[in-house]
């Protein structure tokens, strides 16, 4: 069993299968209503008879989550910089390797690069991944999402005809404040979640606020890392006043809301004492 844990899950029969029928000395094993067995489960400790049938599902070629995260982030980082430096064949030839006259364009590049460099460093040194993997084919879908949006955003923000925000410097400074605040908050949440799980441990715990003020949002939200992520892109949207960025923020918010709701339900299911005041992603709202 352990030999194939990277590519296979042990799937006991679901509740719709004839698991109550006895065929000679063969019993069909049902564990937790057909849920996959965990890697750390010990066979002789499972509530089965002397003989049991295990069902295996081939998951196909797999790739580690760390590799997925790095690939997702490295692409947008370099794609955006190509547009920022206006490499040939993107805009008209006369604009090759020229720079924008608007300071907000340079600030936007700095913020965008900082965001993805931060995510890369967190992937390498902060996040603790379990042994789980994802299908190799999914990386193309994930990269298509991040990379294509990076092209769309970078093209318009760094375009020679780009128009600065309507309310000028005040709008940009306010948006920058939102962006920086949320980036600090995101990092604080990731550190808190890292400290919650010792190296090699798969034990889940309820995250609580710490002395760090950025973590106090845990009192109201189950997944504040998503809250801060949405806030960062909201700030970037206001800063650039660019439609592609706004669209990326909306799509990202919808996706992260789905993830947050799933994690929130998981917390409620696993911990009877889980704080009832918490919402998935937005306090008291969603």
From TrEMBL:
InterPro entries: 3-oxo-5_a-steroid_4-DH_C, SRD5A/TECR. Pfam families: Steroid_dh. It is found in: Membrane. Keywords: Membrane, Transmembrane, Transmembrane helix. PROSITE patterns: S5A_REDUCTASE. It comes from the Eukaryota. Residues 133-286 form the 3-oxo-5-alpha-steroid 4-dehydrogenase C-terminal domain. The chain crosses the membrane at residues 63-85, 144-162, 174-193, 234-259. GO terms for biological process: very long-chain fatty acid biosynthetic process. GO terms for cellular component: membrane. One of its GO terms (molecular function) is oxidoreductase activity, acting on the CH-CH group of donors. It is a multi-pass membrane protein. Belongs to the steroid 5-alpha reductase family. This is 3-oxo-5-alpha-steroid 4-dehydrogenase C-terminal domain-containing protein.
């Amino acid at each position: 069993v352990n030999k194939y844990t990277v590519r296979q899950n042990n799937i006991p029969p679901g509740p719709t299968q004839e698991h109550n029928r006895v065929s000679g000395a063969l019993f069909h094993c049902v564990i937790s209503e057909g849920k996959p067995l965990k890697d750390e489960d010990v066979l002789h400790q499972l509530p089965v008879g002397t003989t049991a049938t295990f069902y295996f599902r081939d998951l196909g070629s797999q790739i580690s989550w760390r590799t997925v995260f790095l690939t997702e982030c490295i692409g947008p980082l370099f794609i955006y910089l190509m547009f920022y430096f206006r490499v040939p064949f993107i805009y008209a030839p006369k604009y090759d390797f020229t720079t924008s006259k608007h300071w907000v364009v340079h600030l936007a590049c700095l913020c965008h690069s900082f965001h993805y460099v931060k995510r890369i460093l967190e992937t390498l040194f902060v996040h603790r991944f379990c042994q789980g993997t994802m299908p190799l084919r999914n990386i193309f879908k994930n990269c298509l999402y991040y990379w294509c949006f990076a092209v769309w955003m970078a093209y318009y923000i760094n375009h020679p005809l780009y128009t600065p925000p309507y309310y000028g410097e005040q709008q940009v400074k306010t948006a920058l404040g939102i962006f920086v605040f949320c980036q600090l908050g995101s990092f604080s949440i990731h550190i808190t979640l890292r400290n919650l799980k010792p190296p090699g441990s798969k034990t889940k715990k309820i995250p609580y606020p710490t002395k760090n003020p950025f973590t106090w949002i845990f009192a109201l939200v189950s997944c504040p890392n998503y809250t801060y992520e949405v806030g960062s892109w909201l700030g970037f949207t206001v800063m650039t006043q660019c439609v592609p960025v706004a669209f990326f923020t909306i799509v990202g918010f919808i996706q992260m809301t789905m993830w947050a709701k799933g994690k929130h339900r998981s917390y409620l299911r696993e911990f009877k004492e889980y704080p009832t005041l918490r919402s998935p992603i937005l306090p008291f709202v969603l």
